[in-house]
Amino acid sequence: MLAQQRQTAILELIRQRGGVRVSHLVSRFGVSDMTIRRDLEVLAERGLVDKVHGGATLAGPGSAEEPGFAAKSIRQQAEKRAIAERAARLVEPGMAIALSAGTTTAALATLLADVRGLTVVTNSIPVADALYQNPRADQTVVLTGGIRTPSDALTGPVAEAAIGALNVDLLFLGVHGMSPRTGFTTPNLLEAGVNRCLINASRRLVVLADHTKWETIGIATIAPLEDADVLITDGGLPAEARAAIGEQVGELIVVEVE
Known about the structure:
Number of helices: 10
Order of helices and strands: HEHHEEHHEHEHEEEHEEEHEEEHE
Distance between the termini: 39 Å
CATH topology of the largest domain: Rossmann fold
């Protein structure tokens, strides 16, 4: 297969899946790791894909374009893990917490196995799966039900009704984007509605957002920046963004990634 043919095939695969790993492409096309990375570099230079750690995703999503959970899961993995580890320190035994859909909240769910007497409300299938893989008699998981979105979130009137009858101590909210003008946003209108219900049901709002979310804007606003009691991000966030966010959120926590 010629390089141009292989690059066309790689691009089509990324369009179908939203994102791919280098290791998968090496196995699929029977070429070296370096060859695949050169192919991705060519596609990135043409503005067709975004190179991420370990793979690539489609470039330049619009405000209503929603990547799937698998595509998002390969982006900023180290940053999301560091943010999740810091967020886990806010969870205490006996709490009732909510976790929205998202890859960072899914990473947080894997760190909660040792918290005793925990009740978790979520509209995220991956979050629920992560908690069910570590079953304990004192752990309660409330999965809302509803209409499934590309990000594996359960949305719609069923989810909103379930959340509306509950009260939790903390909400850990994953977001698609954030900016001073639009606040915290998502590309999915139904998901925005469920996230607003989660905010209304919680005493404190903790937003988990890596630095790439800054000035990314989805079609639907979930909440203004000032609604966040805490925002946890990583050291890649520019100084001007930290200043802007720090003026509006209750507390800005920046974690450094090794």
